[in-house]
Design brief:
This protein is mostly beta strands. Helices cover 0% and strands 46% of the residues. The chain contains no helices and 15 strands. The strands form 4 sheets. Strands 5, 6, 7, 8 and 9 form a 5-stranded antiparallel beta sheet that branches.
């Protein structure tokens, strides 16, 4: 117990020396692989990268890791990852132009091995439409196949917490709305921030 199996100071998940690598998140699979996601600005903007490490320390998704999207948005933040039914569920907040303004919205991807199963750039999870698109959503967590995020309405300065279960195609799971579910039904001017979530046998607990 307590024996160091790789290098004394750990093993780097990417050999790329160019960018700042921040906000890592990891999940361990039942067969002791470790999957990690992080923000990386090697291309000049904050992008989400991923890496899969074998139990013996091999970098399985390339020495420099894998970009989660082929597109090059201005910024991607808040990387999260979970493991569910033999797949990795990945989420992040992506900065995109809505009209004349920029807003973060929550995106996701499901991966098996190196295959991106929701297309080359993932899917929007926090689906908004019409005038609601000016609202901003930022990812807080991914738990199994549930995504959890904070949402702010700039018109009212109202902060709320939302969650959504997705199916294997990245669409709303049976019984769930495309926009997800608001965790609290308080319609007053409230500030709900920093949700914490945990899987339960019945679904997900969010506080």
């Amino acid at each position: 117990l307590g024996e160091t199996l790789l290098e004394t100071n750990g093993r780097t998940v990417t050999l790329d020396p160019m960018g700042a690598q921040n906000t890592p998140q990891a999940v361990v699979t039942p067969d002791d692989h470790v999957a990690m996601v992080w923000t990386d600005d090697r291309s000049g903007a904050s992008r989400i990268y991923a890496q899969l490490i074998s139990p013996t320390g091999e970098r399985l998704w390339g020495d420099n890791g894998m970009m989660i999207t082929e597109s090059e948005p201005l910024s991607q933040l808040d990387p999260r990852i979970s493991y569910h039914n033999d797949s990795f569920y990945i989420g992040w907040s992506e900065w995109e132009m809505i009209g004349t303004r920029f807003r973060y919205h929550v995106y996701g991807q499901r991966m098996q091995n190196t295959q991106k199963l929701w297309g080359p750039n993932g899917k929007m999870i926090s689906i908004l439409s019409g005038s609601e698109l000016i609202q901003e959503t930022k990812l807080a967590d991914v738990v199994e196949d549930f995504y959890v995020w904070s949402r702010v309405n700039p018109a009212t300065n109202q902060f709320s917490v939302w969650t959504k279960r997705v199916d294997e195609n990245g669409d709303a799971h049976t019984g769930w709305e495309d926009a997800g579910m608001r965790v609290s039904n308080d319609e007053g001017i409230t500030t709900q921030l920093s949700p914490v979530s945990k899987a339960t046998p019945q679904g997900i607990y969010v506080t």
